[in-house]
Amino acid sequence: MLDRDVLENFRGKRVLVTGGTGMVGRQIVDLVIAGGGQVRVVSLDDVRPHPEAEYVRGDLTDLGFCSRVTEGMDFVFHVAGIKGSVAVTTRKPASFLVPLLMMNTNVLEASRQNGVARLVYTSSIGAYPSREVFHEADAWDGPPMDEFPGWAKRMGELQIRAYRAQYDLRSFAVVRLTNVYGPGDNFDPANAMVIPALMARIASGEDPLVVWGDGSAVREFAYSGDVAAGIVLALLRGTDGDPVNLGTGCGTTIRELVETLATVVPFNYEFDASKPSGFARRVMNIDAARAQLGYAPATSLYHGLRATWEWYLAHRGEHEQKANYFRESA
Fold first, then answer.
1. Phi first, then psi: what are they for 271, rounded to 5°?
2. Angle 224-237/25-34 helices, nearest 10 degrees?
3. Torsion of Cα atoms, 25 then 246 then 90 then 312, to 10°
4. CA angle 277, 123, 226 (to 5 degrees)
5. Which region, left, alpha or beta, applies to residue 76 given φ > 0 means left and ψ of -120 to 50 means alpha?
6. Average pLDDT over every residue of 224-231
7. What's the per-residue H, E or C state across the chain?
8. In sequence order, which residues have a C-beta less than 8 Å from that of residue 204 and are 6 or more positions away?
9. What are the structural domain ranges in the chain?
10. Would you identify the CATH topology of the domain 11-185+221-248+285-298?
11. Residues 37-86: tens digit of each pLDDT
12. How far apart are CA 219 and CA 95, in angstroms?
């Protein structure tokens, strides 16, 4: 949790949170309201995570709509996006690329035209070329490892760089997020990421739960509350338009993840070493975030998984109320 003096910066401010019904967005909404801010949430989801927030349902791929919802805002958190498994993004790349490009372009341009004082744009680890450890300066050294969403995220970063070059606009911050999990995640078994997918399979009674690979692959899993705090710090302290990584800086093997989850909710599992494990290691370097923003992620994997599992048990059907870009009709 952020200190009260940090949150006081929101007192009396009008704050827009795009994607404020999502996993990270709803945590940002809570922090801003705790600091006395007036929050407007924009989303396509039929979810109301905070009773004190104004909720506007609308499509951010519409520039006119973006102009209306950003008018009069002091701050904008642009955390709306599209999240899906590798399998579904491989099958439906246009469903990722096109709306991401449109919503990012429109929100950023509408915010600039309406004179928003501060904005933070959330990019992604998927914008990086393949690496074992990700440093901010390396992002443009090759094509993004997540081809279609990665290019869309890079274009948002480039748009902010263009604003700085042409207008000397330096109050739009950029953060690149690692793999994030937590309450409010997407638990739709058809397109969920690793942790919510595992939880959904456990809840469905799969026994034993079969995990692909030998469990040796190293990944980074950041709790949504920690990441939300980092995004708030990025907006308030700024990044001068340059990207800053937000993650944990620590790697966790898939075996460690599964074993820790089994201490939260006991289940039987086995690893299938005949299946691919993926890249051996992928971890973010977060030195810049620590130094520039005072970012200090503190939630242990166990406590984060426990909070996420408890939330999931109480909200198992919420994913059905959320916009899904990957339905077969899309």
1. -100, 135
2. 60
3. -50
4. 80
5. beta
6. 98
7. CCCHHHHHHHCCCEEEEECCCCCCHHHHHHHHHHCCCEEEEEECCCCCCCCCCEEEECCCCCHHHHHHHHCCCCEEEECCCCCCCHHHHHHCHHHHHHHHHHHHHHHHHHHHHCCCCEEEEEEEHHHCCCCCEECHHHCCCCCCCCHHHHHHHHHHHHHHHHHHHHHCCCCEEEEEECEEECCCCCCCCCCCCHHHHHHHHHHCCCCCEEEECCCCCEECEEEHHHHHHHHHHHHHHCCCCCEEEECCCCCEEHHHHHHHHHHHCCCCEEEECCCCCCCCECEECCHHHHHHHCCCCCCCHHHHHHHHHHHHHHCCCHHHHCCCCCCCCC
8. 189
9. 11-185+221-248+285-298
10. Rossmann fold (3.40.50)
11. 999 999 998 888 899 999 999 999 999 999 999 999 999 999 998 866 66
12. 26
Please provide the distance, in angstroms rounded to a whole number, between the alpha carbons at the two ends of the chain. 38
pLDDT at 325 over 60: no
Query: How confident is the model over 104-149, as pLDDT tens digits?
Result: 999 999 999 999 999 999 999 999 999 999 999 999 999 999 888 8
Would you state the torsion angle of the CA atoms of residues 279, 247, 254, 94, taken in this order, to the nearest 10 degrees? -60
Closest CA to 119 of 56, 52, 174: 174
Beta partners for residue 222, in sequence order: 180
Residue 320 has pLDDT above 80, yes or no: no
Q: What value does the mean pLDDT take over residues 197-217?
A: 95
Say if residues 295 and 186 touch (Cβ distance below 8 Å): no
